[in-house]
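To close the chapter, one final illustration. This time we ask the reader to focus less on the individual chains and more on the assembly as a whole: which components sit near each other, and how the overall shape emerges from the parts.
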Amino acid sequence: MAISMQCWSKYSVVADTSAGTLFSDLPDSKLRQLAEDSSARHIAGEVTTMESGSCADSLTAGKKRLRSYAFETFVWDLAVRTSRGRVPEGTLLDVPVYLRRWPNFTRLTPIPEAMRVSAVWVQQPRSLVNLYETLKVPIEHVFTLYSAAHAIGLAGVGQREVDGLLEPAAIDGSENEGLFGSILRKLTGRAIEA
Amino acid sequence: MKSPRIVLTGTDAVEAVATLSEIEPDNAHCHALDETGVVDPTTTVVLKHGMMRVERGGRIHLYGKPEKVHTDAVARLLRSGGIGLITLLNNKSQYPLRDMNFQLHTFQDFIAGSSVAVGITHLDLDDPYSIDDYQTELVQRELQAPVFDVNSKDYEDLVTLVEALLLSAAAQRAVK
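The assembled structure is written out below.
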C-alpha cells in the first residue's frame, strides 16, 4: 500500500510502504520546517491511500520532480531533525530499551557518538539513563539516537520481562592496553593518555 | 598486541584494502598450512596487504583475500591474533546469504577470538535481500555484528565499517 500526503498544498510526500521507498518534492528548507514547527499539523493536507502498484502512475501523472528515498533514510533524517536532543512523548528514561540491530550508519544522517553508543547498546537492553551514565556522552546524543532508531523500528521497550529484571552489565575500559585499551577508553569516555 | 590485523574477505576485498590503506598495498607471501596446521613449504598464499594508522602511533594491518585464493588456506593462516573479520558481500550475487555463512563458517576460529563486520555492496531497495535478512542469519549464528551498505571504492563507507568493527570488538571485551 502507498500513502500520499500533500504539504502546504503544493508539495507531495508519497510513501510506498511495501517497497520501502518514499518520494517527495519537499525542499530541504520545508523539510526542516516540517521537523521544527511544533504546530505543523496545519501543514499536512489531504492524505490518500493507493495500491502500491499505482504509485508510479500517480507520480507520473502529477509530472512532479520527486526525489526517491529509502524509507528508513528519510524517516531517520526527519526524526533526527525533529528530536533535537529530545525523546518521543511518553518515553520512560529509566526503563530498559533495546536496539534490535546496528543502524545502517553509512546511509543515515550522522548523530554524534551514535556508533559508540550503539556498540554497547546492541549487546543488551539498557535504559537511556544507563547509557548516558555508563558511556559519559552528552545525553542529547543518546536521546536523538533513540528517537531516530525508534522511528525506524529498531529501538523500543523490551517485551521480555527478564529485560527489566537483569542489571545492565558493567563496562570496563581499564584492563586492556595498546590499541584496544585506547579504543576502550574512548568507548567508555575515559581520557586517552597523550 | 604488536601488530593488530583486520582480515577482509569476499567481494572486492582486495579493492577495499587499496581504498583503506595509507600505504601502497603490497603482496604478503605466506606459506600455507595443511589441514593439521603444519607449514606446507611447497604452497604459498598471496594476500594483499595494506596499513591504517590510528591514534597514538598505532597501526592496523589489513589483509585482503583475493577471490581466487582458497578460503580454507587463509582461514588456517589466520586462526588468531586479529581484531576481526570484515566480509564484503555482493547483494546481486546469486546466493549472498549462503556466501556470508560460508565465510563465517570458514573463519569461525578467527571470529571466535575477535569480532566481525559485514559490508553489503550493490544493495538496492528492490533486491530480494535486505540488511535485516543478513542480520537474521547472524543472529542464528549467535553473532552480534554491524551490517552496513557500502561501496568498496568509497573510503568513508569503509572507514565507518572499520570503526564499527573496532567499537564492536571493544564493547564485547568491555561488557562484563
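Chain A touches chain B at residues 19-21, 70, 101-102, 104-107, 115-116, 118-120, 122-124, 169-173, 176, 178-180, 182-184, 186-188, 192-193 (CB under 8 Å). Chain A has a mean pLDDT of 82. With these observations in hand, you are ready for the problems at the end of the chapter.
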